[in-house]
User: What shape does this take?
Amino acid sequence: MDDLMLNQFLLLAAILFSIGVYGVIARKNTVMVLMSIELILNAVNINLLTFGAANRDVAGAVFALFVIAVAAAEVGVGLAMVLIIYRNRQSVDLDEVDSMRG
Amino acid sequence: MVAQNIFFYVIAAGMVGAAVAVVTTRNVVRAALYLIAVFAGVAAQFILLAAEFVAVTQVLIYIGAIMVLMLFGIMLTRARIGRDVDMTNDHWWVGVGTALLLAAVMAYSLIDRWGDDALPVDRQVNSVGGSNTATVSDSIFSQYLIPFEIVSVLLLAALVGAIVIARKDR
Amino acid sequence: MLRNAWIIPVIPALSFFLILLFGKRLPRKGSELGLAAVGAAFVLALVTQVQWFQHVNDAEHESEPTEEHAAQVVTVSGVSDGEISAPETPEQQGEESEEHASIEPVTREWTWFEFGETEAEVGTLIDGPAVMMLIVVTLVSLLVHVYSTDYVAGDRRYTHFFAFLSLFTASMLGLVMSRSTLQLMVCWELVGVCSFVLIGHWWEEKANSDAALKAFITNRVGDVGMIVGVIVLFFAAGQSFDILDINTQALSGDISHTALLVASCALIAAVMSKSGQFILHTWLPDAMAGPTPVSALIHAATMVVAGIYMVSRLYGVFWEGLSIGVSSINLLALVGGVTVLGGAGLAFVQNDIKRVLAYSTVSQLGYMVMALGIGAWTAALFHLFTHAFFKACLFLGSGSVSHAVHSFDMREMGGLRKWMPHTYRTFLIATAALIGIFPFAGFWSKDEILAGASQLGGAGNYRVFTVVGIIGAFMTAAYMTRCVYLTFFGEFRGHGHPHESGPRIVVPLWILAVLGVVAGLVNLPSALAPDSVELRFEHYYEPVGAYFPSIVPEFAHPEFSWGIAIVSTLIGLIGIGIGIGWYTGRIALRGISERNALARAGYTTLVNKYYFDHLYTDVIAAGTKGPVARGVNWFNQNVIDGVVNGAGRLATASGRWVYTHVDQQVVDGAVNGSAAAAQTGGQVFRQLTSGKVQQYGALLFGAAALFAGAFIVLI
Assistant: This one.
């Protein structure tokens, strides 16, 4: 238990990822689903940086920054869509959004 | 080194707890606040991984910008600020199953593959000036210039797209 | 000034921002800023022009001071040669290229950004074609600015209009002096944006904003080609965006022929969209929804020639890639040839005067592309030069007419020559120049293209394109006669009292009309002119150096040919004659489309613009939309429901089989159970297509986890 292990970061990321997946599947409120997606993206970032540190390569940090930028874009567009859904249906409940029903 | 480990485990435990709270609490605003805790924890982990620049960016963008956006989203969709009776849908057990399955698969493969590998003690990639930040900026503006430009365009497109989607007068 | 030419585009660019910021507060709503900026740019362009002439002269004096005399002797003998026997072009060209030794273009560059080892540069590249375009763009833009102060006076977005005219001028000037392909592409997109904004200037009407969108989207199609071409050239030329470098390498054979061919084909797509070539020409006539000065400046004189200019800039690439010097047909010439005829055909059936001119522009751009395709580089740019003046004059004239009768529909015009003498005269002059009547500008440039088609190229020359060009000249004459006749002759069919426009409209018209007369004189063929004035255009504007195909032995200039000149003039006169005869009723062709089935079919095809719009919207867009939706629906109906129902039915059937064949009293309960299970299974499957995103998400993650688990277990 002297050094930091590679695995402790990776397992932390895996757990965060799984929690995020649970949130995406189980939460009703669309904004909450977006938050869960953020959890998933953060887990990915931890992974990127961990491997970056393990390989002493700066690419991990660079791509983590790209992921952050993409996440910002995703939240912007996602919230705009949530607003539109709310405006049209007076609700952000994902259970009621089923216009893709086959 | 033990200090680092203690630091890690304390923060990790806090993060996992907060993350679980995010996906289980019945109060939307409280979920957002728990999420801030997770993000802060992630930033701390980044510092442990010797990526100070990404950590600062994480604080600025996630906690500073994205969370404000989220709170605005909550406000504009007039979610109940107090407790909501029913925040998880009827199929929440599917989510639990999937998440556990995923976690199991990932944990097994991670332990199987990386076993007892340790991170290098010196995690600075100090090719320039002795700091990771300088190295990151150097490589963004040389090797990763094109992806960087494309990300900028993506951000612009997302901006315009968000405005167009959310506009009222249509 | 040659080294500091970057100032020229910077002035209107600054004026764009100034007008946007302060325009509304100025006494003339910002138009004075635009005028001043473009005026300054024009003056500087003139200075650049003069200095370029000196540069060319200096280069000759320095390199070969003693051969000056010998060179003159050669050209004198060239005169007699040209009169007696035209085919001796190649040898004569050899002597001519010795006459002016390499003229170095004046360049200047700054590093824009670096990535890895590669530097992307911006800068200016001043040589013959760039100087020529500087003059054309600033002059036409200046006249259009003057004209606009009257034409759009009182418009609700007056300031905005002038701001974007400035931005357009700036980006076009930036385009013509681009140093690198990357810079060229950026400016190329910028002029596209300005065109979009200005077409949609009156966007409150749906038709106008649709036209703007159509122009923009059609241009996007070509821009893909542009990007592909630039990238291919970038890697083929060893990671370089440098235009001179790319051309030099292409001509010296450092780049493989295949790479050049791919790059030229991709770039031709860009030319097709920007310069309105078949089959991407459909946006150009619709772009006439914009204000008339914009049509004159952007969609006739300058922006649409960006494609032509791009080809002429990267001519080394096209020359080698398409084997222009030795073939007798190639893609570029073919595209141009088809466009010449197609555009001219469409111009016959339009009732909107601006649309006639728009299709005429398409057709004339076809001439330029064709000329480039057959290797007559100088002829193409010369035609670009003359066309800019007389087509701008025609467009501004049509604007003046519409100002008077408040309509663009030629059916509501007629007899206007009595009321609008200035507009009438300038329009007539410009028409004569367009048709190519001696000695107006169009005669000289069109003739050079036709002569080029009959003399250049490999075995058999580009003879087909001579014929195409002559037919095109005939059609041009006929439809322009129709247009002039409907507008200015006969009885007035509109409402109200037309009146001549004010001086700010008439003066630019006259300037352009005069240029439409004299612009052709700058490149008089050696057969007709004294040495001191012959082929000045070619002499000063055609680049000489390793980056231009003039170093290749096959590169030649067509000689003036009496035969072609006479034939094309006669054909033009016949076209005019038929046009007049038709509309005065002396030739009994009127109403032929009602009487003759074939003529009617042709007429319908033309009215429907060869069904290109139908092809794009109904066939391609709807065609991809419909089948995909239908396919998905079919899959849903047949496969998924089939599987679900089949599973249910199978279970029921097997249940029934068990029920009838196995002792029903013993396994009765079990059978009922399995049937119920099958039904439940069916229900579960049905729920999969619930339309609920989260279920899909759960399936996605679950399946991913399962597959990953299976992967781990199996390995």
